[in-house]
Amino acid sequence: MKSTGIVRKVDELGRVVLPIELRRNMGIEIKDSLEIFVDDNMIVLKKYEPADIFTGSMEDLIDYKGKKVSRNSIIEMARMAGLEVK
Q1: Distances (CA, A) of 22 to 4, 18, 48, 53
Q2: Does residue 59 contact residue 70 with C-beta atoms inside 8 Å?
Q3: What's the rounded Cα separation, in Å, for the pair 84 and 86?
Q4: What are phi and psi of 20, to 5 degrees?
Q5: For residue 75, what are the contacts with CB-CB under 8 A and spacing of at least 6?
């Protein structure tokens, strides 16, 4: 992992400000979601990118009732249900 040399304090509500340079470099915009990971004694933030709820695929996604589903999963489930798919 590469150090940026940037140090920030946690405020009384547990917030940390990400510097604008980092947000620009990482393509993080206002209101974007960040995913939080823990690895041993490290906290890792990653820009959240929704994936297919069944397979984890991030390709060819469709939004269905607030969930992401890939076209491949939909086709596979249709076939499992006995529906003919073109």
Answers
A1: 9, 7, 16, 29
A2: yes
A3: 7
A4: -55, -35
A5: 85
pLDDT, tens digit, 9 for 90 and up, residues 18-48: 999 999 999 999 999 999 999 999 999 998 8
pLDDT at 37: 94
What is the residue-wise DSSP string for 20-83?
HHHHHHHTPPTT--EEEEEETTEEEEEE-----TTT---SSEEEETTEEEEHHHHHHHHHHTT-
The encoded tokens of residue 10 equal 């946690």
For residue 63, the cross-strand partners are 68
60-73: b (≥16 Cβ within 10 Å) or e: ebeeeeeebbbeeb
**Which pTM does this prediction carry?**
0.60
Burial class for 52, CB neighbours closer than 10 Å (0-12, 13-18, 19+):
buried
